[in-house]
Amino acid sequence: MLLETKNVSKSFGGIYALRDICFSLREGEVHGLVGENGAGKSTLIKLLTGVYQMEEGSISFGGSPYLPRTPAAARRAGISVIHQDRTLVPTFTAVENAYLGLPYPRKGAFVDWKSMEKKVQAVSQDAGIELDLHMTAARMSPPQRTCLEIVRALMHDCRLLILDEPTASLTERESETLFEIIGRLKSRGTAILYVSHRLDEIFRLTDRVTVLKNGTLVKTLETASATREDLIRLMADHYTAGGLARAKNTGDELLSCSHLKSRDGTVLDASLSLHAGEILGIFGLGGSGRTELLETLYGLRSADGGEIRLMGEVQPRLSPARSLSRGMALISEDRRGKGMIGNLSVRENVSLSALQDVSRRGIVRKKQETQAVHSMTERLQVRMAGQEQRVLELSGGNQQKVVFARTLLTRPRIFLCDEPTQAVDVMTRSEIHRLLRAEADRGCGVLFVSSDLKEVLEVADRVQIMASGRTWEVLENQDLTTRQVLDLCYREARAKVKSANS
Ligand SMILES: Nc1ncnc2c1ncn2[C@@H]1O[C@H](COP(=O)(O)OP(=O)(O)OP(=O)(O)O)[C@@H](O)[C@H]1O
Ligand SMILES: [Mg+2]
């Protein structure tokens, strides 16, 4: 065994986040870690990497007792991690980010940039990762950032690499690249602990898988002898799968755009039309401009040409405040940046933009507020100590649910959803799908963006293809396969390159 924990526990404010965990990880294996939102996965990882200190129990690593006091100590001992909430410094270049927390090499009185570059180059090449060493993290795409985090994790000799939901905003092809890197690390003898809500990945990558539930370890299984149903049964008490119904009927056009262009050049030429009663999926590979299109429609990004119509009316200019007042809501992929205020309580976050409904003459009616928030958090099964808990303290998936709950409370007519189920567990994910379908059935329109194509095909009535900042075909989602959609995406992306070259 490479790593063993014995009766490890950790609590927050008197509530156990982990209790009596006896977990073991073999030398060189890829080990999956699954469980509902709030089950304790990230907490376990933070104990193993010196972010938190355990209160009871003991850990051994490589045969000797192991008690990391800081993340740096864990790295020195040979355990590196890529946390669920990424930690790159946006204004730093790849090289500077790779050296975060490490001493800069010096040449006399000066920082030896040349040797830093060489080292980062060597580490990334060794792992088969292509990096632009001088690009700042802010300018990188999500997969580039993930790759940079991996390089940073490998700057030390690493015997165990821990990945907490590494594919959360990656599309299939980008995830493939990541899986190749994982394969290469494994063949070099690095053990990997892998957290994901995407069970397909667990089955594809792992040798064994451990299920956590309510802070306890339920079971560790050999992946080859487990099924998807087994895992879900062990993770959750009740779960009803079942396909999602399609649109009953569609009504008037709620939102449309034609030849929309964003000022920053991320959206080049987008046209689409969303009707009452439908869920319109938008799918494209990474860098296709899906997120940027939603943000331009919402007014977060300035448009520069083209036309947006809301309920048939041409909008001269949109801003988030205007969009909100016209019944449009954006559920953003970047919950930390745009979706929530970590320091405020769950109650405050959920009722933030719905304050009009629960206040009279500017005074918030506390009881009504509490009730409204309660009904939402119940429905989405937000796991928290209470409404007064700070959102920062919730698990990643539960934070995402808070963002979603808040949006529902504002009763929008048009939903712009950008990865609304990112980081959310399998069980709540279907609940969110059902909620969106119910909203569509009562006359709302939903634009649904996800990097997970299977998810798009599960929920959408029609699928709009995007590539290279442009919209292409719209497909009726009847017997549509992932293959067909991907083929179109690749073809359009290729066509773009060809026309640019000629
Ligand atoms: N700093 C903290 N303060 C208070 N409670 C915390 C803190 N960190 C975690 N918790 C609580 O510990 C529990 C486990 O959280 P953890 O983040 O480990 O869940 P998780 O399994 O990673 O979930 P997810 O799939 O949503 O990421 C949750 O109930 C969470 O609210
Ligand atoms: Mg987590």
Task: Please specify the SSE layout and strand pairing.
Blueprint: E1 3-12, E2 15-25, E3 30-34, H1 41-48, E4 56-61, E5 64-65, H2 71-77, E6 79-82, H3 94-98, E7 106-107, E8 110-111, H4 113-127, H5 142-154, E9 160-164, H6 172-187, E10 191-195, H7 199-205, E11 208-213, E12 216-222, H8 228-235, E13 253-260, E14 270-275, E15 279-283, H9 290-298, E16 307-310, E17 313-314, H10 320-325, E18 328-331, H11 335-339, H12 346-351, H13 355-358, E19 359-360, E20 363-364, H14 366-379, H15 396-409, E21 414-418, H16 426-441, E22 445-449, H17 453-459, E23 462-467, E24 470-476, H18 482-501
Parallel strand pairs: 3-10, 3-11, 6-9, 9-10, 15-22, 15-23, 18-21, 21-22
Antiparallel strand pairs: 1-2, 1-4, 4-5, 7-8, 11-12, 13-14, 13-16, 16-17, 19-20, 23-24
Helix pairs in contact: 4-5, 14-15
The protein binds adenosine-5'-triphosphate and magnesium ion (MG).
| Biggest sheet: strand arrangement | 6-9-10-3-11-12
Number of helices: 18
Number of strands: 24
List segments where confidence is low: pLDDT < 50 over at least 5 consecutive residues: none
CATH topology of the largest domain: Rossmann fold
